[in-house]
C-alpha cells in the first residue's frame, strides 16, 4: 500500500466536496481523487433550489435569483410567482471552486488528474498507486466506477442536450410539451452574461428523432439565436438503489439521487454527501434528510410514470394543472413540489 486514509472519496463534484468538508471538519483523515484537471465545470443548467441555503452558500457565488418563472405548455404560458426568490443560478465552475476551498480549508486533501482505475475491498488504484481506505465514498457521477464495483446496474438514465448561449435572457422558463418532448422538459436558464438552453428527460417518446434535431427545431420555433453557442450533453443517472453498503457509500448521481422529472441533482448530491459523512462519523446517525430527498424524488418519478402512461392526453392535464396557478397557495405548493 502506498498510503492509507480513513476515507477515500472518488469525485470532486458537489457530493464529494461536501462530504470531504464535513469529514475533515470533524478531524477525519480524508482524501478526494478527481480525474479532471479542474474542479467545478460540469455539463449542467446550474439551477439551484431555495433549500441550497442550508449549506450557507454566499450570495456572491450565485449568478441570479428568481422569484418568478414562466412555465409554457402547448401554446400557453403561466407565471409562477412568489413574494421571495425560490430559484438561483450559479456557474458550476465558481460553485465548485467555492466548495473546493471550503473542503481544503477544513483540512481535506484534494487531488486533480487522479483517476481511480480499480477498486478492491480495502484499497483503490489511482494513477498506478494503491491507496488504502477504511471507508469509500463514491461521488463519481453518472458513470460511477464505485457503482460498477458494487455491481449495481443503471436502468434509469436521462438524456440531455443543452446550449450555452453567450447572451443573457430575461426570464427563467420551463417548457412542458408532450408532443415535442414526451415526458421530458426543456429549459431556458439565465446566468450572468449567458443563458443555458436545453432539454432532457427519459425521451423514449422522441420517436427516433435525435435530441439535437428536437432541440434545434424547438430553438428555431422559439426564435432563439444559437450563434456562438456551445453544445453539451451528459446523461443523468436517476436509478436509486441504496446509498450505504457496508463501508462503501454512493452519493449524488453515482447513487441515482437526481430527480427523474426535473433532472435537478446538485442539492441531492450535497445532502447525500453530507449524510454519508455524518454516518461515517457516527454510525448511529439517523439520515432523515436522505429520506426527505428520496420522498421528493419518488413523487417526481411517480408523476413521470403517470405522464408516460397518458401521453396523448398530457397536454390537457398540463393545462388544468397550470391554470390553477392563479391561486397563490397552490403556486407555493407547486414550487415546493418541483424545486
Ligand atoms: C444537461 C444537464 C443539466 C443539469 N441541470 C441541473 C440543474 O439545473 N440543477 C441541478 O440541480 N442539477 C442539474 N443537473 C444534474 C447535476 O449536474 C448533477 O446532479 C450533479 O452535478 C451531481 O453531483 P455529483 O457530485 O453527484 O456528481 P458530478 O458533479 O458529476 O461529479 C462527479 C465527479 O467525479 C469525477 N469522476 C468520475 N469518475 C471518476 C474516477 N474514476 N476517478 C476520479 N474522479 C472521477 C468526475 O470528473 C466529476 O468531477 C444537470 C445535469 C445535466 C447533464
Describe this structure in words.
This protein has 339 residues and is of the alpha+beta class. The chain has two domains: 3-61 and 90-155 and 236-303, FAD/NAD(P)-binding domain (3-Layer(bba) Sandwich); 158-235 and 310-338, no CATH class. It is built from nine helices and 19 strands. Strands 1, 2, 8, 9, 10, 11, 18 and 19 form an eight-stranded mixed beta sheet that branches. Helix 1 (14-25) links the parallel strand 1 (3-10) and strand 2 (30-33). Flavin-adenine dinucleotide is lined by residues 10-16, 33-36, 42-47, 115-116, 139-141, 145, 160, 162, 198, 200, 234, 236, 252-254, 258, 263-267, 269.
In terms of DSSP E residues, the strand content is 25-35%
Proportion of helical residues: 25-40%
Mean pLDDT, to the nearest integer, reads 93
Find the CATH topology of the largest domain.
Answer: FAD/NAD(P)-binding domain
Classification by helices and strands? alpha+beta
Bound molecules: flavin-adenine dinucleotide
* Helical stretch tally: 9
Rg: 20 Å
Short overview:
The chain has helices at 14-25, 92-105, 145-150, 178-181, 211-222, 266-281, 288-309, 314-323, 328-338; strands at 3-10, 30-33, 47-49, 64-66, 68-73, 76-81, 87-89, 109-111, 116-119, 123-126, 129-138, 157-165, 173-176, 185-190, 195-201, 230-232, 236-237, 244-245, 248-250. By secondary structure, the protein is an alpha+beta fold. It has two domains: 3-61 and 90-155 and 236-303, FAD/NAD(P)-binding domain, CATH 3.50.50.60; 158-235 and 310-338, no CATH class.
Amino acid at each position: 500500500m502506498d498510503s492509507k486514509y480513513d476515507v477515500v472519496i472518488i469525485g470532486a463534484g458537489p457530493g464529494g466536496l461536501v462530504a470531504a468538508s464535513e469529514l475533515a471538519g470533524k478531524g477525519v483523515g480524508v482524501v478526494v481523487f478527481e480525474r479532471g484537471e479542474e474542479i467545478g465545470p460540469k455539463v449542467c443548467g446550474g439551477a439551484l433550489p431555495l433549500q441550497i441555503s442550508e449549506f450557507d452558500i454566499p450570495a456572491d457565488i450565485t449568478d441570479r435569483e428568481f422569484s418568478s418563472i414562466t412555465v409554457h405548455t402547448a401554446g400557453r404560458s403561466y407565471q409562477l410567482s412568489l413574494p421571495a426568490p425560490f430559484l438561483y443560478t450559479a456557474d458550476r465552475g465558481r460553485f465548485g471552486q467555492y466548495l473546493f476551498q471550503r473542503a481544503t480549508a477544513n483540512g481535506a486533501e484534494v487531488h486533480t488528474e487522479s483517476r481511480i482505475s480499480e477498486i478492491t475491498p480495502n484499497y483503490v488504484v489511482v494513477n498506478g498507486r494503491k491507496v488504502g481506505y477504511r471507508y469509500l465514498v463514491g461521488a463519481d457521477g453518472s458513470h460511477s466506477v464505485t457503482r460498477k464495483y458494487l455491481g449495481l446496474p443503471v436502468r434509469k438514465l436521462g438524456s440531455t442536450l443543452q446550449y450555452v448561449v453567450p447572451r443573457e435572457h430575461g426570464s427563467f422558463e420551463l417548457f412542458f410539451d408532450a408532443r415535442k418532448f414526451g415526458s421530458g422538459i426543456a429549459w431556458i436558464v439565465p446566468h450572468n452574461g449567458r443563458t443555458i438552453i436545453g432539454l432532457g428527460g427519459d425521451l423514449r417518446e422522441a420517436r427516433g428523432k435525435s435530441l439535437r434535431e428536437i432541440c434545434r427545431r424547438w430553438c428555431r420555433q422559439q426564435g432563439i439565436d444559437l450563434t456562438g453557442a456551445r453544445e453539451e450533453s451528459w446523461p443523468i443517472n436517476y436509478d436509486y438503489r441504496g446509498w450505504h453498503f457496508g463501508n462503501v457509500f454512493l452519493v449524488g448521481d453515482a447513487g441515482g439521487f437526481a430527480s427523474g422529472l426535473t433532472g435537478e441533482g446538485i442539492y441531492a448530491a450535497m445532502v447525500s454527501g453530507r449524510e454519508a459523512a455524518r454516518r461515517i462519523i457516527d454510525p448511529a446517525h439517523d439520515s432523515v434528510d436522505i429520506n426527505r430527498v428520496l420522498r421528493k424524488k419518488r413523487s417526481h418519478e411517480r408523476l413521470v410514470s403517470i405522464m408516460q402512461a397518458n401521453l396523448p392526453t398530457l397536454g390537457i392535464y398540463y393545462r388544468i394543472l397550470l391554470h390553477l396557478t392563479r391561486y397563490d397557495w397552490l403556486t407555493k405548493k407547486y414550487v415546493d413540489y418541483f424545486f
